[in-house]
Design goal:
Elements lengths: L11 E6 L3 H14 L2 E6 L2 H10 L4 E5 L7 H11 L5 E5 L4 H10 L3 E4 L4 H12 L9 E7 L4 H15 L3 E6 L5 H14 L2 E3 L11 H14 L3 E5 L6 H13 L5 E5 L12 E4 L4 H8 L12 H11 L8 E9 L8
Parallel strand pairs: 1-2, 1-3, 3-4, 4-5, 6-7, 6-9, 7-8, 9-10
Antiparallel strand pairs: 10-12, 11-12
Helix pairs in contact: 2-3, 6-10, 7-10, 8-9
Amino acid sequence: MAPSQVPTQGPVKILLVEDTLDHALLVQILLRKAGNFVTTHCQDGDRAMEVLQTHTFDLVITDLNLPGSDGLELTRHVKATYPQVPVLVTTGYTDPEYSYHAYQAGADEVILKPVDRDDLLRTVRNTLGLGRGEIDAVGILAVGARPGDVEAATAGTLVAHRERGESVAIALLARSEESTEEMARAAAAVLGARLLFPEYDMPPGDPSGLQHFLRRAVTELKPHAAYIPAAEEDANDRRGAHHVALASLGEVPNIVTYATATIGLDFRPNRFVHVGKLMSRKLEILSMYKASGRPDLSPRFVEATARYWGRVAEFAEVEPLEVLRSGRDHPVDG
Protein backbone atom coordinates (compact mmCIF):
# COMPACT_ATOMS: atom_id res chain seq x y z
CA MET A 1 0.00 0.00 0.00
CA ALA A 2 1.24 3.49 -0.78
CA PRO A 3 2.41 5.53 2.19
CA SER A 4 -0.02 8.06 3.64
CA GLN A 5 0.42 11.79 3.15
CA VAL A 6 2.09 13.14 6.28
CA PRO A 7 2.50 16.77 7.22
CA THR A 8 5.56 18.50 5.83
CA GLN A 9 5.53 20.76 8.89
CA GLY A 10 4.48 20.10 12.44
CA PRO A 11 4.52 16.82 14.36
CA VAL A 12 3.62 13.41 12.99
CA LYS A 13 0.67 12.23 15.09
CA ILE A 14 0.61 8.55 16.07
CA LEU A 15 -2.08 6.63 17.93
CA LEU A 16 -0.44 3.88 19.99
CA VAL A 17 -2.76 1.13 21.19
CA GLU A 18 -1.00 -1.13 23.68
CA ASP A 19 -2.27 -2.63 26.94
CA THR A 20 1.18 -3.38 28.39
CA LEU A 21 2.28 -0.11 29.94
CA ASP A 22 6.01 -0.89 29.98
CA HIS A 23 6.00 -1.66 26.27
CA ALA A 24 3.89 1.41 25.50
CA LEU A 25 6.32 3.62 27.43
CA LEU A 26 9.27 2.13 25.57
CA VAL A 27 7.71 2.76 22.15
CA GLN A 28 6.80 6.33 23.15
CA ILE A 29 10.36 7.02 24.29
CA LEU A 30 11.84 5.61 21.08
CA LEU A 31 9.54 7.68 18.90
CA ARG A 32 9.99 10.86 20.92
CA LYS A 33 13.78 10.65 20.69
CA ALA A 34 13.85 9.62 17.04
CA GLY A 35 12.09 12.53 15.43
CA ASN A 36 9.06 14.77 15.17
CA PHE A 37 6.62 12.14 16.47
CA VAL A 38 3.84 12.78 18.99
CA THR A 39 1.97 9.77 20.40
CA THR A 40 -1.45 9.36 21.97
CA HIS A 41 -1.77 6.16 23.99
CA CYS A 42 -4.83 3.96 24.49
CA GLN A 43 -4.85 0.65 26.38
CA ASP A 44 -7.72 -1.05 24.54
CA GLY A 45 -9.29 -1.15 21.12
CA ASP A 46 -12.67 0.25 22.18
CA ARG A 47 -11.10 3.41 23.60
CA ALA A 48 -8.95 3.76 20.48
CA MET A 49 -12.05 3.75 18.28
CA GLU A 50 -13.56 6.50 20.43
CA VAL A 51 -10.42 8.63 20.17
CA LEU A 52 -10.34 8.19 16.39
CA GLN A 53 -13.80 9.79 16.18
CA THR A 54 -12.53 13.10 17.57
CA HIS A 55 -8.83 13.20 16.63
CA THR A 56 -6.88 12.72 13.42
CA PHE A 57 -3.70 10.66 13.18
CA ASP A 58 -1.02 9.99 10.60
CA LEU A 59 -0.36 6.42 11.80
CA VAL A 60 -1.91 3.80 14.10
CA ILE A 61 0.37 1.36 15.91
CA THR A 62 -1.57 -1.42 17.62
CA ASP A 63 -0.89 -4.65 19.46
CA LEU A 64 -2.91 -7.69 18.38
CA ASN A 65 -3.88 -8.96 21.83
CA LEU A 66 -5.96 -6.18 23.40
CA PRO A 67 -8.81 -6.00 25.91
CA GLY A 68 -12.15 -5.18 24.31
CA SER A 69 -11.84 -4.93 20.55
CA ASP A 70 -8.60 -6.65 19.62
CA GLY A 71 -5.97 -5.46 17.18
CA LEU A 72 -7.57 -7.19 14.21
CA GLU A 73 -10.93 -5.55 14.85
CA LEU A 74 -9.28 -2.17 15.31
CA THR A 75 -7.30 -2.58 12.08
CA ARG A 76 -10.46 -3.40 10.13
CA HIS A 77 -12.21 -0.39 11.68
CA VAL A 78 -9.39 1.98 10.75
CA LYS A 79 -9.20 0.70 7.19
CA ALA A 80 -12.98 0.89 6.72
CA THR A 81 -13.38 4.34 8.30
CA TYR A 82 -10.04 6.08 7.68
CA PRO A 83 -8.54 4.26 4.68
CA GLN A 84 -5.77 6.86 4.26
CA VAL A 85 -4.32 6.08 7.71
CA PRO A 86 -1.70 3.27 7.73
CA VAL A 87 -1.71 0.66 10.48
CA LEU A 88 1.40 -0.92 11.96
CA VAL A 89 0.70 -4.08 13.98
CA THR A 90 3.02 -5.30 16.75
CA THR A 91 2.74 -8.80 18.17
CA GLY A 92 4.58 -11.21 20.40
CA TYR A 93 3.15 -14.18 18.46
CA THR A 94 5.84 -15.64 16.22
CA ASP A 95 3.54 -18.04 14.37
CA PRO A 96 3.23 -16.71 10.77
CA GLU A 97 -0.54 -17.28 10.97
CA TYR A 98 -0.93 -14.20 13.18
CA SER A 99 0.92 -11.97 10.74
CA TYR A 100 -1.15 -13.40 7.91
CA HIS A 101 -4.41 -12.52 9.69
CA ALA A 102 -3.09 -9.01 10.45
CA TYR A 103 -2.32 -8.39 6.78
CA GLN A 104 -5.73 -9.79 5.82
CA ALA A 105 -7.34 -7.30 8.19
CA GLY A 106 -5.56 -4.49 6.35
CA ALA A 107 -2.32 -3.95 8.28
CA ASP A 108 0.34 -2.15 6.27
CA GLU A 109 3.22 -3.66 8.27
CA VAL A 110 3.72 -6.22 11.07
CA ILE A 111 6.72 -6.28 13.42
CA LEU A 112 7.45 -8.75 16.19
CA LYS A 113 8.00 -8.04 19.87
CA PRO A 114 10.26 -7.37 21.62
CA VAL A 115 10.44 -4.36 19.33
CA ASP A 116 13.89 -3.60 18.01
CA ARG A 117 14.64 0.12 17.87
CA ASP A 118 16.10 0.11 14.38
CA ASP A 119 13.32 -2.09 13.00
CA LEU A 120 10.61 0.06 14.58
CA LEU A 121 11.98 3.39 13.34
CA ARG A 122 12.74 2.09 9.88
CA THR A 123 9.25 0.58 9.56
CA VAL A 124 7.51 3.72 10.85
CA ARG A 125 9.44 5.95 8.44
CA ASN A 126 8.87 3.66 5.50
CA THR A 127 5.16 3.33 6.24
CA LEU A 128 4.81 7.10 6.47
CA GLY A 129 6.87 7.70 3.34
CA LEU A 130 9.56 9.57 5.28
CA GLY A 131 12.49 7.74 3.70
CA ARG A 132 14.26 4.61 4.70
CA GLY A 133 15.74 6.09 7.84
CA GLU A 134 18.86 4.01 7.55
CA ILE A 135 20.84 3.70 10.75
CA ASP A 136 24.26 5.28 10.46
CA ALA A 137 27.47 3.33 10.86
CA VAL A 138 28.39 2.29 14.37
CA GLY A 139 31.15 4.37 15.89
CA ILE A 140 31.27 2.88 19.38
CA LEU A 141 31.31 -0.74 20.58
CA ALA A 142 30.78 -1.40 24.30
CA VAL A 143 31.46 -4.91 25.62
CA GLY A 144 29.81 -6.28 28.76
CA ALA A 145 30.05 -9.51 30.73
CA ARG A 146 26.58 -9.14 32.26
CA PRO A 147 23.44 -7.26 31.22
CA GLY A 148 23.49 -3.81 32.81
CA ASP A 149 27.27 -3.58 33.27
CA VAL A 150 27.83 -1.33 30.27
CA GLU A 151 24.91 0.95 31.13
CA ALA A 152 25.80 1.26 34.83
CA ALA A 153 29.42 2.09 34.05
CA THR A 154 29.24 4.14 30.85
CA ALA A 155 25.64 5.16 30.01
CA GLY A 156 26.41 8.85 30.45
CA THR A 157 29.45 8.58 28.21
CA LEU A 158 27.49 6.64 25.60
CA VAL A 159 24.65 9.17 25.69
CA ALA A 160 27.24 11.87 24.97
CA HIS A 161 28.42 9.86 21.96
CA ARG A 162 24.84 9.58 20.74
CA GLU A 163 24.31 13.33 21.15
CA ARG A 164 27.39 13.91 18.97
CA GLY A 165 25.73 11.88 16.23
CA GLU A 166 27.68 8.65 16.75
CA SER A 167 26.00 5.25 16.85
CA VAL A 168 26.55 2.75 19.63
CA ALA A 169 26.46 -1.05 19.81
CA ILE A 170 26.52 -3.11 23.02
CA ALA A 171 27.92 -6.65 22.82
CA LEU A 172 27.05 -8.96 25.73
CA LEU A 173 29.28 -12.00 26.08
CA ALA A 174 26.81 -14.33 27.82
CA ARG A 175 23.21 -15.30 27.22
CA SER A 176 20.83 -14.73 30.14
CA GLU A 177 17.28 -15.59 31.13
CA GLU A 178 14.74 -14.36 28.60
CA SER A 179 13.36 -11.76 31.01
CA THR A 180 16.84 -10.34 31.62
CA GLU A 181 17.59 -10.21 27.92
CA GLU A 182 14.33 -8.30 27.42
CA MET A 183 15.50 -5.77 30.02
CA ALA A 184 18.79 -5.43 28.14
CA ARG A 185 16.96 -4.87 24.87
CA ALA A 186 14.75 -2.25 26.47
CA ALA A 187 17.73 -0.43 28.00
CA ALA A 188 19.60 -0.48 24.69
CA ALA A 189 16.51 0.85 22.94
CA VAL A 190 16.18 3.77 25.36
CA LEU A 191 19.87 4.54 24.88
CA GLY A 192 19.44 4.26 21.14
CA ALA A 193 22.00 1.47 20.84
CA ARG A 194 22.16 -1.77 18.92
CA LEU A 195 22.36 -4.89 21.11
CA LEU A 196 24.39 -7.97 20.16
CA PHE A 197 24.31 -11.42 21.79
CA PRO A 198 26.26 -14.58 20.93
CA GLU A 199 24.04 -16.91 18.96
CA TYR A 200 24.38 -19.55 21.66
CA ASP A 201 26.03 -20.13 25.04
CA MET A 202 29.77 -20.62 24.66
CA PRO A 203 31.49 -23.51 26.48
CA PRO A 204 32.99 -22.30 29.78
CA GLY A 205 36.74 -21.98 29.74
CA ASP A 206 36.94 -21.74 25.95
CA PRO A 207 37.30 -18.10 24.84
CA SER A 208 37.64 -18.88 21.13
CA GLY A 209 33.91 -18.68 20.44
CA LEU A 210 33.58 -15.30 22.15
CA GLN A 211 36.64 -13.99 20.35
CA HIS A 212 35.10 -15.03 17.06
CA PHE A 213 31.84 -13.30 18.07
CA LEU A 214 33.63 -10.02 18.84
CA ARG A 215 35.90 -10.15 15.80
CA ARG A 216 32.88 -10.65 13.59
CA ALA A 217 31.23 -7.65 15.28
CA VAL A 218 34.30 -5.51 14.64
CA THR A 219 34.44 -6.61 11.00
CA GLU A 220 30.78 -5.77 10.50
CA LEU A 221 30.54 -2.57 12.54
CA LYS A 222 34.04 -1.10 12.14
CA PRO A 223 33.92 0.88 15.41
CA HIS A 224 36.53 3.54 16.04
CA ALA A 225 36.37 3.10 19.84
CA ALA A 226 35.54 0.30 22.27
CA TYR A 227 34.65 0.27 25.97
CA ILE A 228 35.51 -2.95 27.80
CA PRO A 229 35.61 -4.16 31.44
CA ALA A 230 38.78 -3.33 33.34
CA ALA A 231 41.51 -5.90 33.94
CA GLU A 232 41.29 -5.13 37.67
CA GLU A 233 37.81 -6.64 38.07
CA ASP A 234 37.58 -9.14 40.92
CA ALA A 235 34.69 -11.08 39.33
CA ASN A 236 35.97 -13.87 37.09
CA ASP A 237 33.48 -13.33 34.27
CA ARG A 238 34.15 -9.60 34.09
CA ARG A 239 37.92 -10.05 34.23
CA GLY A 240 37.63 -12.76 31.59
CA ALA A 241 35.57 -10.42 29.41
CA HIS A 242 38.42 -7.93 29.54
CA HIS A 243 40.95 -10.46 28.23
CA VAL A 244 38.59 -11.80 25.54
CA ALA A 245 37.81 -8.29 24.36
CA LEU A 246 41.42 -7.17 24.35
CA ALA A 247 42.39 -10.21 22.29
CA SER A 248 39.56 -9.56 19.80
CA LEU A 249 39.68 -5.81 19.19
CA GLY A 250 43.06 -5.45 17.53
CA GLU A 251 41.64 -3.35 14.68
CA VAL A 252 39.91 -0.86 16.98
CA PRO A 253 42.13 2.26 17.33
CA ASN A 254 40.75 3.42 20.71
CA ILE A 255 40.17 1.10 23.68
CA VAL A 256 38.92 2.31 27.06
CA THR A 257 38.18 0.26 30.18
CA TYR A 258 35.42 0.86 32.70
CA ALA A 259 34.70 -0.21 36.28
CA THR A 260 31.74 -2.22 37.62
CA ALA A 261 30.65 -2.92 41.19
CA THR A 262 33.34 -5.61 41.54
CA ILE A 263 36.30 -3.44 40.54
CA GLY A 264 39.51 -4.05 42.48
CA LEU A 265 41.59 -1.50 44.32
CA ASP A 266 44.26 -1.46 41.61
CA PHE A 267 42.01 0.24 39.04
CA ARG A 268 43.67 3.51 38.01
CA PRO A 269 41.35 5.62 35.82
CA ASN A 270 42.99 8.36 33.80
CA ARG A 271 39.90 9.96 32.28
CA PHE A 272 36.77 11.16 34.05
CA VAL A 273 33.65 11.94 32.03
CA HIS A 274 31.37 14.46 33.75
CA VAL A 275 27.84 13.05 33.64
CA GLY A 276 25.94 15.25 36.09
CA LYS A 277 23.82 16.79 33.33
CA LEU A 278 23.27 13.33 31.83
CA MET A 279 22.42 11.53 35.08
CA SER A 280 18.66 11.64 34.53
CA ARG A 281 19.14 10.01 31.12
CA LYS A 282 21.42 7.41 32.65
CA LEU A 283 18.89 6.54 35.34
CA GLU A 284 16.14 6.35 32.73
CA ILE A 285 18.17 3.76 30.84
CA LEU A 286 18.93 1.77 33.99
CA SER A 287 15.28 1.85 35.05
CA MET A 288 14.69 -0.81 32.40
CA TYR A 289 16.52 -3.19 34.80
CA LYS A 290 14.38 -2.31 37.83
CA ALA A 291 12.74 -5.75 37.94
CA SER A 292 16.16 -7.44 38.16
CA GLY A 293 16.57 -6.29 41.77
CA ARG A 294 20.32 -5.80 41.32
CA PRO A 295 21.61 -3.27 43.87
CA ASP A 296 24.45 -2.17 41.58
CA LEU A 297 21.90 -0.99 39.01
CA SER A 298 19.84 1.02 41.49
CA PRO A 299 19.74 4.84 41.28
CA ARG A 300 21.20 5.19 44.78
CA PHE A 301 24.23 3.02 44.00
CA VAL A 302 24.84 4.55 40.58
CA GLU A 303 24.67 8.12 41.85
CA ALA A 304 26.84 7.31 44.87
CA THR A 305 29.46 5.71 42.60
CA ALA A 306 29.53 8.76 40.35
CA ARG A 307 30.07 11.01 43.37
CA TYR A 308 32.70 8.72 44.88
CA TRP A 309 34.87 8.97 41.78
CA GLY A 310 34.07 12.66 41.55
CA ARG A 311 36.23 13.31 44.61
CA VAL A 312 39.22 13.32 42.24
CA ALA A 313 37.45 15.30 39.49
CA GLU A 314 36.24 18.58 40.95
CA PHE A 315 33.71 16.78 43.14
CA ALA A 316 31.46 16.27 40.11
CA GLU A 317 29.43 13.22 39.13
CA VAL A 318 31.70 11.28 36.80
CA GLU A 319 32.25 7.98 35.06
CA PRO A 320 35.84 6.78 35.60
CA LEU A 321 37.65 5.32 32.61
CA GLU A 322 41.13 4.13 31.78
CA VAL A 323 42.39 4.74 28.25
CA LEU A 324 44.43 1.71 27.17
CA ARG A 325 44.86 2.60 23.52
CA SER A 326 44.45 6.01 21.95
CA GLY A 327 44.74 6.18 18.20
CA ARG A 328 42.91 8.60 15.96
CA ASP A 329 39.96 10.56 17.36
CA HIS A 330 39.89 10.38 21.14
CA PRO A 331 36.73 8.43 22.01
CA VAL A 332 35.61 10.64 24.88
CA ASP A 333 36.10 14.17 26.03
CA GLY A 334 37.93 14.66 29.30
